[in-house]
Amino acid sequence: MAINNTTILTGNMGSEARIIKTEETTFAAFSIATTDSYKDDNGEWQEKDTIWHNVLAFSPKIIETVKNLKTGTRITVTGSLSYRPFEVADGNGEVITKKEASVIIGKLELTPLVKKKN
Question: What is the full DSSP assignment across 50-111?
Fold first, then answer.
């Protein structure tokens, strides 16, 4: 079977994991913040906007790991994108359906911050 939906994110935990228990399953939910940087024409480091990613973990081993991590911990997650529909009202009282993306974690690693030297 081909794996066509692989996502790898390295960033900082934007929130501590919430452990959510339902009748069917237990999972962890948290966010990861990613910010890229680059050198401009003057050789100065510039940061791009921070992007926030929703992350879900269903593996008991990963749930155990993330429930002990603090906001700001630098991690790398490998997983797949999943989309869930939700409805919102627009300015005219109409209900529209949007989709929210989340990364479903398959693997998690603690990742030290390494800056390239140039």
Answer: PEEEEEEE--HHHHHHHTTPPTT-EEEEEEEEEEEEEEEE-TTS-EEEEEEEEEEEEEEEE-
Say which amino acid occupies 78. T
**H or E segment and range at residue 16:** none
- Residue 10, both tokens: 């390295």
Distance separating alpha carbons of residues 53 and 109, to the nearest angstrom: 16
Number of domains in the chain: 1
pLDDT digits (tens, 9 = 90+) for 77-112: 999 999 988 888 888 888 989 888 999 999 999 988
Q: What is the pLDDT of residues 3-53, one digit of tens each?
A: 678 999 999 999 999 999 999 999 999 999 998 888 889 988 888 889 999
In a domain, 2, yes or no: no
Q: How far is Cα 37 from Cα 59, in angstroms, rounded to an integer?
A: 32
Residue 118 lies in a domain: no
